[in-house]
Write a structure and sequence with these properties.
Helix content: 25-40%
Number of strands: 11
Number of helices: 8
Strand content: 5-15%
Largest sheet: 4 strands, mixed
Strand order of the largest sheet: 5-4-9-6
Radius of gyration: 26 Å
Order of helices and strands: HHHHEEEHEEEEEEEHHEH
C-alpha cells in the first residue's frame, strides 16, 4: 500500500484520482505491472515517475466539477434505492414477521369488532393459531409450505458466457455476482422478457429481484417464479431473503432452498403488499437505469477530459 500526497499548488487530489482511473493511465499501470507468484503488483517506487497530463488548476477544477457532479448523482440514486429497499423490508417485517398487517373487514367482523378494519392485526387481538411445523403462532387462515411447492417451471433460455458479456448493449446480463448488472448483450435469444423474476446464485446465495427484461449469466444462476397467488413475486422475494442457507458452506444451494419453509398469508394481505412493493421497485428500476446511463456518460467523458480532447466549460 502506498500513499500519494499531491502538491496543492500543482494538482487537485480529485483530479489525480480521476487521472488514475482514466484508461490512458491504467494502460501505463498495466504496462508496468510486475507478475508475482501470488499476485500481480506495481513498484511503488516507480509509481511517482509515471507520466500524466497536468493542465492548469482552473482546468482541473472544471474537469473535477463535471465528473464529481455525475458521481454525486450516481451515489444519490444508490442511496435512494437503499432507502426504498429499506421501506419495503420494514413493511414486510411489520406485516409478515410481526403479523401486524392491516386487518381486513372479514377478519374484524369475525372478532365481532368491525371498527378494527385496517388496524394492526396482532396488536388489535387478531386470532393466532399455533403451527406445529414452524413451532410458533401464525394468523388464523395462514398456511405453511416448502419453497419447492410454489416454484413455477421455468423455460430454459440461452445463457450468456462470461467471454460474451459486453460493457454496453441492449439487454442487461444478471449473474450470481455481487454487482446487480454484470454487463450487457445484444443476443435476443438470451432475453428473459416475462418479468419480474428472482435470480438466485446457486453458490453465492445472492438474491436479485429483476423487474425488467434481462439475460442470465452462465455461472450457476437459478430463475425463480412463484406460481402461488398468495405468494406474488415481490412477497416471494422477501420471504426468500429471510431464508438462512449459511450452514451449507460451498455447495449447490438450490436443492436446500427448495426444502425451506415459507408462510402463505391470506390473499388480501398478499395483494396489498404486492401493490405497495411494486410501486417501490418501479422507482428502484428507474434509478438503476438512470445510473447506468450516467455511468456510461462519465466513462465516455473521462478519457477525453483527461487527455484534453474536450474541455469543460
Amino acid at each position: 500500500m502506498g500513499i500519494l500526497r499531491p502538491e496543492p499548488a500543482k494538482v487537485l487530489p480529485e483530479f489525480l484520482l480521476y487521472s488514475y482511473i482514466a484508461p490512458e493511465f491504467q494502460n501505463v499501470i498495466v504496462a508496468n505491472t510486475i507478475t508475482g507468484a501470488t499476485v500481480d503488483r506495481i513498484s511503488l517506487t516507480d509509481l511517482p515517475n509515471f507520466v500524466m497530463r497536468l493542465p492548469p488548476l482552473d482546468e482541473q477544477r472544471r474537469i473535477v466539477s463535471v465528473l464529481t457532479a455525475l458521481d454525486a448523482k450516481i451515489e444519490l440514486n444508490q442511496r435512494i434505492n437503499a432507502e426504498l429497499e429499506g421501506m419495503a423490508k420494514l413493511l414486510y417485517d411489520y406485516w409478515f414477521v410481526q403479523f401486524d398487517f392491516p386487518m381486513t373487514a372479514v377478519q374484524a367482523a369475525a372478532l365481532g369488532k368491525p371498527k378494527l378494519t385496517g388496524h394492526p392485526y396482532r396488536a388489535s387481538g387478531g386470532k393466532m393459531i399455533y403451527n406445529e411445523t414452524l413451532k410458533r403462532d401464525i394468523p388464523e387462515g395462514w398456511d405453511v409450505c416448502n419453497v419447492g411447492d410454489v416454484l413455477a417451471k421455468e423455460l430454459r433460455t440461452k445463457n450468456v458466457l462470461n467471454s460474451e458479456i459486453a460493457d454496453q448493449g441492449r439487454i442487461p446480463v444478471i449473474d450470481q455476482g455481487s454487482a446487480f448488472i454484470c454487463g450487457f448483450t445484444d443476443d435476443e435469444d438470451s432475453a428473459i422478457k416475462d418479468t419480474p423474476k428472482i435470480v438466485f446464485g446457486d453458490h453465492t446465495r445472492i438474491l436479485k429481484f429483476v423487474n425488467f427484461p434481462f439475460a442470465r449469466g452462465a455461472d450457476g444462476t437459478q430463475i425463480l417464479t412463484s406460481r402461488e397467488s398468495r405468494l406474488p413475486q415481490h412477497l416471494f422475494y422477501y420471504q426468500l431473503l429471510s431464508v438462512d442457507l449459511s450452514n451449507y458452506g460451498y455447495a449447490r444451494h438450490f436443492k436446500f432452498l427448495k426444502e425451506q419453509k415459507m408462510i402463505l398469508p391470506d390473499q388480501d394481505s398478499a395483494n396489498a403488499f404486492e401493490r405497495a412493493a411494486e410501486c417501490i421497485y418501479e422507482n428502484i428500476k428507474n434509478n438503476i437505469f438512470q445510473n447506468q446511463e450516467l455511468t456510461q456518460l462519465r466513462d465516455w467523458l473521462l478519457p477525453m477530459l483527461m487527455n484534453g480532447q474536450v474541455t469543460a466549460g
